From TrEMBL:
This protein's UniProt keywords: Acyltransferase, Transferase
Record's keyword annotation contains Disulfide bond: no
Domain N-acetyltransferase as annotated: residue spans: 1-126
Source superkingdom: Bacteria
Organism: Duganella lactea
Protein name: GNAT family N-acetyltransferase
CDD domains: NAT_SF
Length: 133
């Protein structure tokens, strides 16, 4: 997953050591849940949902596999899971004026604000989903 994260053309990490292996492991079950997309046993994309703040912590696809609809599928898995936990909405941030920024708009997310180079988004729960009390 780290290899995929470091291979992206946009939203590159300024400090690759900022995201550790332990962070990836913690988001698998302790802090949330994660999903991967595989082709012939090779992980080519992943998403992580953070249950502590009902957010998408990560969504990345290996550059050679972009444009195949994998990000849409992984995002749906993550948001569906967060809504199943009873959250009224899901949030995320991404680089402003990037392909990811445009991707989330196209998926129906609402941009709340832009601060510096970051765009912040919210996705309300489907109307048939009951929010947490």
């Amino acid at each position: 997953m780290s290899t995929i994260r470091l291979a992206v053309r946009e939203n590159a990490l300024s400090d690759p050591n900022r995201i550790t292996r332990k962070m990836y492991e913690d988001y698998l079950e302790l802090l949330g849940r994660g999903w991967v997309a595989e082709i012939n046993g090779e992980v080519i994309g992943f998403s992580y949902a953070d249950k502590t703040d009902a957010s998408i912590w990560a969504l990345f696809i290996s550059p050679p596999h972009e444009g195949k609809g994998l990000a849409k599928q992984l995002l749906k898995l993550a948001t569906d899971w967060l809504f199943e936990q009873g959250n009224a909405c899901v949030r995320l941030s991404t680089g402003a004026e990037t392909r990811a920024d445009r991707f989330y708009l196209a998926q129906g997310w609402r941009r709340e604000r832009v601060e510096a180079n970051d765009a912040f988004y919210v996705l309300p729960a489907p109307t048939n989903q009951a929010p947490k009390a």
